[in-house]
Design goal:
3 helices; 0% strand; 81% helix; mainly alpha
Length: 150
């Protein structure tokens, strides 16, 4: 049994060793969440600036601003999805770590549950990174450096 010695005693140092990898993963997800939150803040700031300028723009300038606002809306939705999925991943990792200790202390065999939590965490993380990647592609596709040549 995970974290239990042959005599029925709990091997908490062993459980801590098992929890180290998920803790490092949790740290990486936290860094990713920081990046995502900063991107969302920049998107929101840019959208507010554009929204404030819309009433005073006309013609092509107004159309360009409206198009950019639409793109920013799509980007914000993708970043929001990535934040949601990465947060779900972090929560699943926390449950996994708690499950390691609960299983050891109560002498429960939680291997299947813990494996399931890890798999779900990875699926959520993959989904979060895919949403992030889509947002980056959308952001770079809408860049304009100087005049466009077709």
């Amino acid at each position: 049994m995970i974290g239990q010695l042959a005599g029925g005693e709990f091997d908490i140092p062993h459980v801590i060793q098992l929890a180290v990898a998920p803790v490092f993963l949790l740290s990486g997800v936290g860094v990713t969440l920081g990046v995502l939150v900063n991107r969302l803040a920049r998107i929101i700031d840019r959208a507010r600036t554009l929204e404030a300028s819309l009433p005073v723009t006309t013609g092509t300038t107004h159309e360009v601003a409206a198009t950019e606002l639409h793109t920013l809306s799509r980007r914000a939705a993708l970043v929001n999805r990535a934040i949601t999925l990465c947060t779900a991943c972090a929560l699943l990792i926390c449950l996994l770590i708690a499950g390691l200790f609960i299983g050891a202390i109560l002498g429960l065999e939680l291997t299947v549950l813990l494996a399931g939590l890890f798999i779900l965490a990875m699926v959520a993380l993959i989904g979060g990174y895919l949403s992030f990647l889509r947002e980056v592609f959308l952001a770079t596709a809408s860049l304009r450096f100087g005049a466009r040549h077709h």
